[in-house]
Amino acid sequence: MSSKHGGSGNTSDDDWILVNGTPASCVQLGLFNLFPNRPPIDLVISGPNHGRNASTIYNLSSGTVGGALEAANCKHRSVALSFTSKDEQPAHIIAAASRHSVKLIEHLYSNWPPSVELFNINVPMLSDVESRPAKYSRSLSSYWSKGSLYAETTHANPEHLPISGTHGGAKIRQFAWAPELSDIKSASASSAEGTDMWTINQGFTR
After folding, report:
1. To bridge 151 with a disulfide, which of 66, 141, 178, 184 should be the other Cys (CB 3.0-4.6 Å)?
2. What are phi and psi of 53, to 5 degrees?
């Protein structure tokens, strides 16, 4: 994964730093290695991720939330920011979601509760998002109930080795990411009022 962080200790504010690593590693580098000549960082924003990060399943497996958690583990306030659709969006909707996100993060920064270490924000990709309310919510508890997230594949691997049988005395098997999401989608659609999934399904920022 490539991540970008603005500025550096020896360059102008218009420069970017590209890090080939996880969001958590980017946070570590940003906090402790890349900006030695700057004041201490007082807020970490991880994202925006394209795709919602709501319910315990997605929150616990999200690299975006993981970056914010890494900041919290380093005693820094943090925000995980996600845009709730993976689909390509027109420029005016991206602009509206970005403006809405900035206003919301500025509000949270100025009114940060002492007991909170991290906020996880999901912004719906809607043209009128700026006129829709933002709501606090709890995470929907969700679980993988369909078994494995992987399926064995018969496609040849990069080394052109056979998928079944043996090679050099070792048995070769290959698996591909193939999660069965029907249980997660069903739980999301029927989520109770006050949960993060319900809030997002209503078109609200959570």
Report:
1. 178
2. -120, 80
Phi, psi angle pair for 46, to nearest 5°:
-105, 115
Distance CA 155, CA 168 (A): 19
Helices (H), 33-144: 55-61, 63-73, 91-110
Q: pLDDT band for 189, please (50, 70, 90 cuts).
A: confident
What digits encode the pLDDT tens for the residues 6-25? 444 454 555 788 888 899 99
Instruction: Give Cα separations from 5 to 25, 46, 51 (angstroms).
Output: 12, 10, 20
Q: Per-residue pLDDT averaged across 175-188, rounded?
A: 78
Q: Alpha-carbon distance 68 to 40, whole Å? A: 17
